[in-house]
Design goal:
Layout lengths: L1 H11 L5 H13 L3 H9 L6 H13 L3 H13 L6 H10 L6 H13 L6 H13 L3 H10 L6 H13 L3 H13 L6 H8 L5 H13 L6 H13 L3 H10 L5 H13 L3 H13 L6 H13 L3 H13 L6 H13 L3 H10 L5 H13 L3 H13 L6 H13 L3 H14 L5 H13 L3 H10 L5 H13 L3 H13 L6 H14 L2 H15 L5 H13 L3 H9 L7 H14 L2 H14 L4 H13 L3 H14 L11
Protein name: Pentatricopeptide repeat-containing protein
GO biological process, one term: RNA modification
Organism: Thalictrum thalictroides
């Protein structure tokens, strides 16, 4: 339609008019056709500040900062006087960490030309420095701006603190704003709520918002229930959601996403159905959120229903929806459908490609996963931590050390080895492949290892029979001020088991509740039974199981049964097997272990009876095989 109007302009001879020419440039820029926008701009006989700003804005929208700055320099060279809108466009082009020098130069020009008192320019400066992570510069601009009476500037500064996860500073500025007699606007509260991750602080903030009558505002209300969702309080989130009168598509989608991310798939689908019932048409973001719910469960049937709806709504080819479908089918293990959707995508993005690779990797399709990884690289896609950790997980599961080392090379090359998920996956991969020295090297290269990295390294030492090293690393972790979690103690107790440290095992086990407030789970009890069993203290292990604070499961009894096999304790082995078979009647391992104990003792009649029992319940041992 725009091209048709442009043709009419040429036919009527209005193309030389500066206002019409500027409108044409703006039209092509907003439609994403940068080439025609530039052609229209260069064809103008007379250009004013508005037309220059329009073409600069076009490049900013395309995130082409270099071209935007180039045209700004040309504008100044031609002596065209800039205005505040031109400067906000140029500042937006500099909102990248690598363009700090350019931002400072523009800032100097702003001061020189006297625009540093203009509220719009000041707000842009604060926002640009915040996006760069230079919150100190943002504070300096705010302090020197003299905009104490402008609530919008305060809101931009609070938003800057929120972008940099500085909750304390954001609240401090809110309090100062209120003392100055200014009323925080919806933007202030939305920014603060976006970074609250403590339910107690969130509820206090909610009370203040209620007191000031802003809870019915759709922006504030949406930020409130999103905050409750992030804090895991879905019921409170839903109460706030229902209090919003004019719910738009964004608020519906946010509430749906909250239920989906926390695994409440049925509730997410209720939201989806109610949304459609109220004639609010789902967009690609909505469908992506509901597909996430299908992936979390995972539910293939519901995923297919959403797929059908997307096709009927004409959104089946949308990149975001297609990516969600690839992820859903991959998580459900239906890789043929995942691949089919992926191949039909008009534009393949990094997320969908990574999801397909992850699906192949998690289901053990090594060749297909590596082939897609190769094609992703050939297509010029940058690999991310999600892609590489999926492949490393595959290498760890299949204990393919050579594959893990090959994957390590591009990790080092592109510099993502310090990324926590990647570093942790490398540690686990090398540990499971028996290369504990390589695990240690990776761990040492992580500048600030998190709890997962420490735990992975402790587990690695324990699995490779280096119990004392695991315990020394645990002590070092504690000295660094990190608090262990339940998985950390699984590693510590495993280390005690592999090193025969019975009393130390008791001490660590008791410290879980006493010193760290962690309630022992089935894996912790199984570790303690293993410690006692390896030490030959089987009767003590039986008493320990009898005194457990939780009901022993098949894992605990199975651990005792394994120890009975090692030490040839037939009677206790019978007892352990009886409990396992009561919990899992078709558990083949229990039958086989008890049969082996009896066979070692020469009780062949009993072995025959066990075989008959197996046949009676339909338990069948898979025959062993070798690839050699």
């Amino acid at each position: 339609m725009g091209r048709g109007v442009h043709g009419r302009v040429i036919k009527c001879g209005f193309e030389e008019d500066v206002f019409v020419g500027t409108a044409i440039v703006d039209l092509y820029a907003k439609c994403g056709d940068i080439n025609d926008a530039v052609e229209g701009f260069l064809g103008m006989q007379v250009r004013n500040v508005v037309s220059w700003t329009a073409i600069i804005s076009a490049f900013v929208q395309r995130e082409d900062s270099g071209s935007a700055l180039k045209f700004f320099k040309e504008m100044r060279r031609e002596g065209v006087e800039v205005n505040n809108y031109t400067l906000t466009c140029v500042l937006a082009a500099c909102a990248k960490p690598q363009m700090m020098n350019e931002a400072i130069q523009i800032h100097s020009y702003i001061v020189k030309c006297g625009f540093d008192s203009n509220c719009t320019v000041v707000d842009s400066l604060i926002n640009v420095y915040s996006k760069m992570g230079q919150i100190g510069f943002s504070k300096l601009v705010f302090k020197e701006s003299g905009s104490a009476e402008n609530a919008e500037t305060w809101a931009v500064m609070i938003s800057g603190f929120a972008q940099n996860r500085s909750l304390g500073s954001a609240f401090e500025l809110l309090e100062m704003m209120i003392r100055e007699g200014l009323r925080p606007n919806t933007s202030c509260w939305s920014s603060v709520l976006s970074i609250i991750d403590c339910i107690y602080v969130g509820r206090q903030t909610h009370c203040y918002i209620l007191k000031n009558g802003m809870v019915s505002d759709i922006c504030v209300g949406s930020a409130l229930f999103t905050m409750y969702s992030k804090c895991g309080s879905l019921e409170e989130a839903y109460v706030v959601f229902e209090q919003i009168h004019d719910r738009d598509r964004v608020s519906w989608t946010s509430m749906l996403a909250g239920f989906a991310e926390h695994g409440y798939v049925d509730r997410a689908f209720d939201i989806f159905r109610n949304m459609v019932h109220e004639d609010i048409k789902p967009d690609p973001m909505t469908l992506s959120a509901i597909l996430t719910a299908c992936s979390v469960l995972p539910s293939l049937q519901k995923g297919k229903e959403v797929h059908a709806y997307a096709l009927l709504a004409g959104l089946g080819g949308d990149t975001l929806v297609s990516g969600g479908l690839v992820t859903m089918y991959s998580k459900c293990g239906v890789l043929v459908s995942a691949r089919r959707v992926f191949e039909l995508m008009p534009q393949k993005d990094k997320v969908s490609w990574s999801s397909l690779i992850s699906g192949y990797a998690q289901n053990g399709y090594v060749e297909e996963a590596l082939l897609q990884y190769h094609e992703m690289l050939v297509a010029g896609m940058n690999i991310n931590s999600f892609t590489i950790t999926s492949l490393l997980g595959m290498a760890a599961t299949l204990t393919i050390s050579a594959l893990g080392k090959q994957l390590h090379v591009p990790i080092v090359k592109i510099g993502i080895g310090s990324d926590p998920p990647v570093g942790n996956s490398l540690i686990t991969m090398y540990s499971k492949c028996g290369s504990i020295e390589d695990s240690n090297k990776v761990f040492d290269q992580i500048e600030h290892p998190d709890l997962i990295a420490w735990t992975s390294m402790i587990m690695g030492y324990a699995q490779n029979g280096k119990g004392m090293d695991a315990l020394r690393l645990y002590d070092l972790m504690r000295s660094k001020g990190l608090k262990p979690d339940p998985l950390t103690f699984v590693g510590v107790l495993s280390a005690c088991s592999h090193s025969g440290l019975v009393e130390e095992g008791y001490n660590y086990f008791n410290s879980m509740t006493k010193n760290h407030g962690i309630k022992p789970g089935s894996h912790h009890y199984a570790c303690m039974v293993d410690i006692l069993g390896r030490a030959g203290r089987l009767e003590e292990a039986e008493r320990f199981i009898a005194n457990m604070s939780i009901k022993p499961d098949a894992l605990v009894w199975g651990t005792l049964l394994a120890s009975c096999k090692v030490h040839g304790d037939v009677e206790l082995g019978r007892l352990a097997a009886k409990h396992i078979l009561k919990l899992q009647p078709t558990e083949v391992g229990a039958y086989v272990s008890l049969s082996n104990i009896l066979a070692d003792m020469g009780q062949w009649d009993e072995v025959a009876n066990i075989r008959k029992l197996m046949m009676g319940v339909g338990a069948k041992k898979e025959p062993g095989w070798s690839s050699l």
